[in-house]
């Protein structure tokens, strides 16, 4: 006799975005590794991604990947600004595909936050000379991103058009590299966020001033990338939904942006915050669990667009509730997955999923089922 299987926890329900289905709602959040050579991921990246590929998430979004060489954050950032970067990414997407994990690439232009040292080397501006010298950065306006940093040069209109073309070219390379989806990095103080924020965009031309003009470049990028990638391929946008300070970008502004992104074919907003006036959530601060979930909830409700919640989501029961209560469609985890790549497996056990070992590849599942029997589970 066959019957409909019990629905099970919300966290383990599939999520469909256009032509792509994530087998569950657990997403590896983008995490820069700062160890690429001329933008090419290497052995470290393969090992890093293998930890997640073998461990049962629904999707993995790869680190902020520069669309131009000058759009890197550090010398160690990955890129898709030239064809030689496609093959090393293909090896990684193939690894994930072999294990049923949807892959995404986060495309980025660092703007005035470029030419900095790796976090563990201080994350400050690079020296003018030496093997890892600084390069010239563009931004919406010549506003330094941190006190004492070199200000970026205000981008000309021609350079702004070049940025759009670079996002398009990189997204086409992402398709060739086998990615299932593209995420545009509109957060954390990098170029697209810097255009949105009144703190960093002081222009008085078509790309600055009121919100509609500050949104112009971000929307041009979204529209152009949407047109460049296959219709069945989801397009995501990572947003810093608030600058969290007086005079900065507000959640209300970001809801206007989310509606405009939806109208241009963006399928989901990945809901982060900070990076210009306030630090990005990852910096060492004590924050409550799931502290950014209200942002994802507001965008989902007000813009009627699927969202991904991120930020200190470490507990399986909390993650399941976020999805079950309709506060977000999926959750992204970063540091927790570094600490426990098998988080999805452990969450499946905690949430009482039938046959939790099924989230893992067969050679692991077989022996862990036997271990579960030996433990009397
Ligand atoms: C090592 C590391 C690298 C990160 N790199 C990126 C990145 O490339 N792009 C991005 O949008 N966020 C990046 N983040 C932020 C995370 O994606 C995530 O939003 C943040 O860490 C909060 O989630 P968590 O509390 O689960 O770590 C990074 C975080 C870490 C820990």
What does this structure look like?
With 377 residues, this protein is an alpha/beta fold. The chain has 12 helices and 12 strands. The strands form 3 sheets. The chain has an 8-stranded parallel barrel with strand order 3-4-5-8-9-10-11-12, surrounded by 6 helices. It has a two-stranded antiparallel sheet with strand order 1-2. It is globular and about 65 Å long. 48% of the residues are buried. Flavin mononucleotide (FMN) binds next to strand 4 and helix 10.
CATH architecture of the largest domain: Alpha-Beta Barrel
Question: Mean of residue pLDDT?
Answer: 96
User: Within the CATH hierarchy, at the fold level, what is the topology of the largest domain?
Assistant: TIM Barrel
Low-confidence stretches: none
Strand order of the largest sheet: 3-4-5-8-9-10-11-12
What proportion of the residues is helical, as a percent range?
A: 25-40%
What's the end-to-end separation, in Å?
26 Å
List keywords for this structure.
TIM Barrel; 377 residues; 8-stranded parallel barrel; binds flavin mononucleotide; 2 domains; two-stranded antiparallel sheet; alpha/beta
Secondary structure layout plus pairing:
Layout: E1 15-17, E2 20-22, E3 26-28, H1 43-53, E4 59-66, H2 86-98, E5 102-108, E6 138-139, E7 153-154, H3 157-176, E8 181-186, H4 191-196, H5 211-214, H6 216-228, E9 235-240, H7 251-263, E10 268-272, H8 293-303, E11 307-310, H9 316-324, E12 330-333, H10 335-339, H11 343-350, H12 362-374
Parallel strand pairs: 3-4, 3-12, 4-5, 5-8, 6-7, 8-9, 9-10, 10-11, 11-12
Antiparallel strand pairs: 1-2
This protein binds flavin mononucleotide.
Flavin mononucleotide binds at residues 29-32, 63-64, 106, 185, 187-188, 238, 272, 281-282, 310-313, 333-336.
